Amino acid sequence: MRNGRVYPRPTESDLLNAMNTGQDYLKPAEIADLAALPEAEVRGYLADHPELFRCRTIGPVRLYHPKAVETVRTLAEAARNNRDLEAERAVAEAAAGIAVPDEDTPPSPAVQAYFDARDLKDVVARQALEIEALRREITGREEALSARIALLEETLRKEREKTSLIAEWVDYFDSEISLLKRPFLERILGKKG
Prior knowledge:
- The protein has helices at 12-19, 28-35, 39-48, 67-80, 84-99, 109-181, 184-192; strands at residues 55-58, 61-64.
- The longest helix is centred in the last third of the chain and has 73 residues, at 109-181.
- 13% of the residues are buried.
- Helix 2 (28-35) packs across helix 3 (39-48).
- It starts with 11 loop residues before the first helix and ends with a helix.
- The protein has 7 helices and 2 strands, in the order H-H-H-E-E-H-H-H-H.
- It is rod-shaped.
- Helix content is 72%, strand content 4%.
- It is mainly alpha-helical.
- Keywords: Coiled coil.
- Residues 68-162 form a coiled coil.
């Protein structure tokens, strides 16, 4: 309950949609890159003609629809040519294009390529993190195996020492038993001689 209102609990799809908020929208710096204009100039157009640009606000950040790139280009071209009438016509045309929300219209190929590159960058960053985690896991396993091998080698060395000692005792008792198996007179004469 917030502000006296009861809000329904968000579903999983609502949460996924909220996480994707802004994925298909552009920041002013991105619009400047795509329009090949200085960021200050783009911010000026965005501030001077807010009615032309459909945007979404997330906290202090404003994200603009991909059509903003074309609108900014049109405004910049009209301003460069110093044609006030054409600038007003370009503004009117741009306003007509933005006034109707057209969510289904795909962005221009350049903007779509930018979105794809941004998504690919995210995928590569996520894969780099996964690779680093795997590398740490493999290094940990190698260290554990090295420690286990060292322990087994030490145990083997101790067992060999025990086996060598037992073999010496077995040889000693075998020689004593073979002496005891000889006839009595041979044992006595053998000891003297």
